[in-house]
């Protein structure tokens, strides 16, 4: 999150917002004062994303123009930072279409090994001044920083755990 340079009031879009990494990113971005757009599929993930602080949710199975919807929501200019937390190679290409001029594509989700990604036509990336940034999450340092941030926050993080059967939420305060 820090590497994105996101500031309060700026737009952050999360592709894979309802997943294991995405839902934590949504909460961190919201706690940092960002305006958050969640992109995922299904009613359950929509409810989760809105509960965690997304201002808007785009169901990629229902939208006819996912990137266009994201741009429209973010003041017609696109997100300042697009976080790709999904592991789909297609999510990376989609991300470049959601970012505003000068925006950042934060590469978090790991597609299958051997998947090539430049994001788009190099001319498109250059003319829109987009930055594509690979970021490793989950290091001991990251975990410590997030834990300290969470301790100082007035809201406590909600964690989800996938098991065989329905998804359940874990809230340490409950």
Q: Which SSEs are present, and which pair or pack?
A:
Layout: E1 11-15, H1 22-31, E2 35-40, H2 43-52, E3 56-59, H3 66-73, E4 79-84, H4 89-98, E5 99-107, H5 122-127, E6 131-134, H6 140-152, E7 159-161, E8 168-170
Parallel strand pairs: 1-2, 1-4, 2-3, 4-5, 5-6
Antiparallel strand pairs: 7-8
Describe the protein's architecture and organization.
The structure is a single chain. The chain is α/β, with parallel strands linked by helices and 174 residues long. The chain has one domain (7-110, 118-160): 3-Layer(aba) Sandwich (Rossmann fold). The protein is built from six helices and eight strands. The protein has helices at residues 22-31, 43-52, 66-73, 89-98, 122-127, 140-152, and strands at residues 11-15, 35-40, 56-59, 79-84, 99-107, 131-134, 159-161, 168-170. The strands form two sheets. A six-stranded parallel β-sheet has the order 3-2-1-4-5-6, with helices on both faces. A two-stranded antiparallel sheet has the order 7-8. Helix 1 links the parallel strand 1 and strand 2 (35-40). The longest helix has 13 residues, at 140-152. The two termini are 27 Å apart.
Q: What labels would you give this structure?
A:
NAD, 33% helix, 6 helices, ADH-like_C, single chain, alpha/beta, Rossmann fold, metal ion binding, 174 residues
